[in-house]
Amino acid sequence: MEFSLKDTQNNHLRTIELSEALFGREVRGDILARMVNYQLAKRRSGTASTKVRSQVRGGGRKPYRQKGTGNARQGTIRAPQFRTGGVVFGPLPRSYAHKMDKKERRLALMMALSAKHAAGEMIIVDSLVLAEVKTKAMKAVLAALSAEVSALVVVVEADRNVELSARNLPGIKVLRLEGINTYDLLAHEKVIMTEDAVKRLEERLL
Q1: In the 3-class helix/strand/coil scheme, how is 44-112 assigned residue by residue?
Q2: 61 close to 87: Cβ distance less than 8 angstroms
Q3: Domains along the sequence of the chain with CATH
Q4: Are 117 and 25 in contact (CB under 8 A)?
Q5: Could you tell me whether strands 2-6 and 122-125 are parallel, antiparallel, or unpaired per DSSP bridges?
Q6: Per-residue pLDDT at 8
Q7: Is the dihedral of CA 105, 106, 109, 111 positive or negative?
Q8: Contact 181, 113 (CB under 8 A)
């Protein structure tokens, strides 16, 4: 598959070859949906907690005698039917994570890349280097690439200038190659990758 390689000013430099196995796959929505659910479930903190009747403070004494009051019999004012009582079947701390096969997770990532390629929402640049930490410079690069609204920038390794320059731009996220994932690919309108990042990704996934 041929693809246009550009510079940071959106000028065409040359044509590069992309792997069809990585960027030309048939996209299946069910696999992408499962992967997104898998990622979001793992992110949930699962810290919601309620107290059952044995954990609520007070209520050790029987509120009134068993018979003769005309009321229903009660053993404690901390029973669930009382306003200050315990909670029945309330949430308790737990993990929401569920399993998903490694092969399926890898397939979902390749499908997400293929979906971005098919939609024309992928941009590959020869390199992305900033001389200093400057948000204005990063914003100018994104504007030239028509990706200033929502973009995922993928770099090979840590780049302090790029990461800090993009930090304050809404809708822009910089990811190192090892952190690339299906959810972030689908959550942003454009995906900007360096040529080196594409080569490393093909070596890793194929």
Answers
A1: CCCCCCCCCCCCCCCCCCCCCCCCCCCCCCCCCCCCCCCCCCCCCCCCCCCCCCCCCCHHHHHHHHHHH
A2: no
A3: 2-45+98-205 (3.40.1370.10), 50-90 (no CATH)
A4: no
A5: parallel
A6: 96
A7: negative
A8: no
Q: What is the pTM of this model?
A: 0.87
| Closest to 129 measured CA to CA, from 116, 121, 138, 120 | 138
d(CA 58, CA 85): 9
Which residues touch 176 (CB under 8 Å, ≥6 apart)?
154, 155, 156, 157, 158
Neighbours of 96 (CB within 10 A): 12
First to last CA, the chain: 15
Specify the pLDDT at position 79: 95
